[in-house]
UniProtKB/TrEMBL annotation:
<dbReference type="Pfam" id="PF00528">
    <property type="entry name" value="BPD_transp_1"/>
</dbReference>
<feature type="transmembrane region" description="Helical">
    <location>
        <begin position="258"/>
        <end position="279"/>
    </location>
</feature>
<feature type="transmembrane region" description="Helical">
    <location>
        <begin position="92"/>
        <end position="117"/>
    </location>
</feature>
<keyword id="KW-0472">Membrane</keyword>
<feature type="transmembrane region" description="Helical">
    <location>
        <begin position="129"/>
        <end position="149"/>
    </location>
</feature>
<dbReference type="InterPro" id="IPR035906">
    <property type="entry name" value="MetI-like_sf"/>
</dbReference>
<keyword id="KW-0813">Transport</keyword>
<keyword id="KW-0812">Transmembrane</keyword>
<dbReference type="InterPro" id="IPR000515">
    <property type="entry name" value="MetI-like"/>
</dbReference>
<comment type="similarity">
    <text>Belongs to the binding-protein-dependent transport system permease family.</text>
</comment>
<feature type="transmembrane region" description="Helical">
    <location>
        <begin position="213"/>
        <end position="238"/>
    </location>
</feature>
<keyword id="KW-1133">Transmembrane helix</keyword>
<feature type="domain" description="ABC transmembrane type-1">
    <location>
        <begin position="87"/>
        <end position="280"/>
    </location>
</feature>
<protein>
    <submittedName>
        <fullName>ABC transporter permease</fullName>
    </submittedName>
</protein>
<feature type="transmembrane region" description="Helical">
    <location>
        <begin position="161"/>
        <end position="180"/>
    </location>
</feature>
<keyword id="KW-1003">Cell membrane</keyword>
């Protein structure tokens, strides 16, 4: 309960602020309707109207919850959980690109980190480029990646995964470099006294020491990969995926649809990061680093 109660308190506060913010944001449309109808709105009528509009500027939680239920739970009960109307189907499409990009980004990040730690030239040349790569907005790079890959006949899952990889490799590089360099001079000197090779030093000292940094980097990389997959669906004109749902909602002013897709993306990210956290606790405990 010590862990659950603070989380529930914060969630309750967010929901309360959310409901309160919906009133002034949706009030102009309510007043406009009342003026055209020649009636005056009381405070209670205003609140009721702002919490029940079809296309509000800010949908309230119960509207978003109803939309999520209609596009997930209700369809599951009808045996159509993965129909093209279902958020589960769109989440799966985004998840597939997220995981492929995450795996590619993690592999690239580990390779770069190992090279940077063991090669002074790579440290001085590659590391600045790795950092500089993240200063360019991904929303500007994504269309170029899509166009270039389409020009050479590559479309579908891989272009979205490449965008996810671009975002996810950076935290892995930074975290692994920090982790591989975390052993202090005394530990490295001890390995030298044992006449350990560079490979043995890496396997028995640097790599185990980097694990806490590695798993923390994976959590950030997973969230970044999901963002990349969603962004990758925008310039492709995709008809499936959470990014496609956001795009369709923005075209037709369906703010409830937009917010339901956003919350589904947040839930997906929380589940994926939670899985990494569970693996981290098991792995570190087996290595003797857990509590």
């Amino acid at each position: 309960m010590r862990n659950v109660l603070p989380v529930l308190t914060v969630v309750a506060a967010i929901i309360a602020i959310w409901y309160a913010a919906a009133v002034p944001l949706n009030a102009p449309w309510a007043y406009d309707k009342a003026q055209r109808a020649g009636i005056e709105l009381s405070a209670a009528d205003l609140v009721a109207d702002t919490w029940a509009q079809d296309k509000p500027k800010l949908p309230v939680p119960h509207q978003v919850a109803a939309e999520i239920w209609d596009t997930t739970g209700a369809l599951v009960l009808k045996g159509r959980g993965f129909s093209k109307r279902s958020l589960l189907y769109h989440s799966w499409v985004t998840f597939s690109a997220t995981m492929l990009g995450f795996l590619l980004g993690t592999g690239l990040g580990i390779l770069l980190a190992v090279g940077i730690v063991h090669n002074r030239t790579m440290d001085r040349s590659v590391m600045p480029w790795v950092i500089a790569s993240q200063t360019v907005p991904i929303i500007a790079i994504a269309p170029m990646i899509i166009v270039v890959l389409n020009a050479v006949g590559i479309s579908g899952l891989l272009p979205k995964a490449m965008i996810s990889m671009y975002l996810s490799f950076f935290p892995v590089v930074v975290g692994m470099v920090k982790g591989l360099r975390s052993p202090d001079a005394m530990q490295l000197d001890q390995m030298r006294t044992w006449n350990a090779s560079r490979t043995q030093t890496f396997r028995y000292l640097r790599l185990p020491s980097s694990m806490p940094y590695f798993f923390t980097s994976l959590k950030i990389a997973m969230a970044a990969s999901l963002v990349g997959a969603i962004i990758g669906e925008l310039p492709t004109g995709a008809v499936a995926g959470l990014g496609a749902r956001l795009l369709a909602g923005s075209y037709y002013g369906q703010t409830v649809q937009i917010w339901s897709a956003l919350l589904m993306a947040a839930l997906l990210a929380a589940i994926l990061v939670g899985i990494i956290g569970a693996v981290q606790r098991v792995a570190l405990a087996r290595m003797g680093m857990g509590r």
